[in-house]
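Friendly challenge for the regulars: who can give me the structure tokens for this chain first? No prize, just bragging rights.
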Amino acid sequence: MDSEDKRAVGKKQKWSDSYTQYWINHTNCELCYGTASAPAHIKSRGAGGSDSENNLLSLCLTCHTKQHRQGWGWVISQAPFLKEKIQLWHQDLMYQKKSSLR
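First reply, four minutes later:
Bragging rights claimed.
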């Protein structure tokens, strides 16, 4: 899907410009580098999260499903470089023992 197609989908879905732009700029899953689906919110909008770049991750459908089933600790165990970004929205992860994040 090219940039124009993604803009059309974003407009139809009434996504914010920042969410749509993140999707356009981040085409690969940030964990496995496969083709990403629409960006995932680190902290859901319903829980007070935003569409800002620091609250979005590009994930493929497989990794997104695993994140929902296994939690953010699983994501951190797969990609430690994302730990700081995730902890911006989930401060409670800072206090978990390393072993619980595996």
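The helical segments are 3-13, 17-25, 61-70, 72-78, 83-89. DSSP finds five helices and two strands in the chain. Your move, everyone else.
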